[in-house]
């Protein structure tokens, strides 16, 4: 099965210091929140100089956008692994579901990084909100292609429901009962497969 995972993946930074800043931002922003982590903290934790930080990123906003792009890259790589396994559409959809369930059950899980990032920026024109919207559109498109390959009678609607179910499970899995959230997510995914006649 071949499902297009566009947009193309951005390259990881080649400079070790730039990558270290990005990986530090990824950990701190996800664990503590984007706005609560200042530039000085990023610089100290990444063990780089202020000059190095500004040479590679220029501002905290650019690091934040790079963080969202990095999280998108991880999601795209997960979809690429699933589609490269040449699974049936039903098995691929189950693999997507299992990937979400694994994230919810992982130690240190704090919800969806994209929803968390968007929640910190009220301006819908902020670059972070734009990057999150792009990711979500990509995610819905990939799920639509997957449900279409599955033979679902309404693949667009099915994809929208799966995105919403994922959002709810990620939020409920963090703020509420992860077992209940995971069980509800499984029911939605199973229903999509059943609606396609599998």
Number of DSSP helical runs? 9
Helix proportion range? over 70%
What is the average per-residue confidence, as pLDDT, rounded to a whole number? 92
Oligomer: single chain
Q: Based on DSSP secondary structure assignment, what is the total number of beta strands? A: 0
Sheet with most strands: none
Q: What structural class do the secondary elements suggest?
A: mainly alpha
**First-to-last CA distance:** 16 Å
Rg over CA atoms: 18 Å
| Parts with pLDDT < 50 across at least 5 consecutive residues | 1-5
Q: Helix and strand succession? A: HHHHHHHHH
Strand content: under 5%
What does this structure look like?
The protein has 198 residues and is mostly helical. It has helices spanning 16-32, 39-46, 50-56, 60-84, 89-105, 113-119, 127-150, 155-175, 178-195. It starts with 15 loop residues before the first helix and ends with a helix. 31% of the residues are buried.
Primary descriptors:
mainly alpha; 73% helix; 0% strand; 198 residues
Short structural description:
It comes from Pseudolysinimonas yzui. With 198 residues, the protein is an all-alpha fold. 73% of the residues lie in helices and 0% in strands.
Topology:
Blueprint: H1 16-32, H2 39-46, H3 50-56, H4 60-84, H5 89-105, H6 113-119, H7 127-150, H8 155-175, H9 178-195
Helix pairs in contact: 1-2, 1-4, 4-5, 4-7, 5-7, 5-8, 5-9, 6-7, 7-8, 8-9
């Amino acid at each position: 099965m071949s499902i297009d995972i566009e947009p193309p993946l951005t390259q990881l930074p080649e400079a070790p210091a730039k990558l270290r800043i990005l990986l530090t931002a990824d950990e701190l922003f996800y664990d503590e929140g984007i706005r609560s982590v200042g530039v000085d903290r990023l610089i100290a934790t990444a063990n780089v100089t202020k000059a190095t930080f500004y040479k590679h990123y220029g501002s905290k906003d650019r690091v934040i956008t790079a963080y969202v792009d990095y999280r998108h890259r991880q999601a795209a790589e997960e979809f690429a692994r699933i589609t490269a396994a040449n699974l049936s559409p039903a098995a691929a959809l189950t693999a997507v579901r299992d990937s979400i369930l694994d994230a919810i059950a992982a130690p240190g899980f704090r919800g969806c990084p994209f929803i968390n990032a968007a929640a910190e920026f009220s301006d819908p024109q902020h670059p972070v909100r734009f990057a999150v919207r792009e990711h979500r559109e990509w995610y819905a498109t990939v799920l639509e292609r997957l449900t279409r390959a599955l033979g679902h009678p309404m693949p667009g609607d099915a994809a929208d429901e799966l995105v919403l179910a994922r959002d709810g499970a990620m939020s409920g899995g963090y703020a509420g009962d992860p077992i209940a959230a995971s069980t509800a997510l499984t029911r939605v995914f199973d229903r999509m497969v059943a609606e396609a006649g599998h």
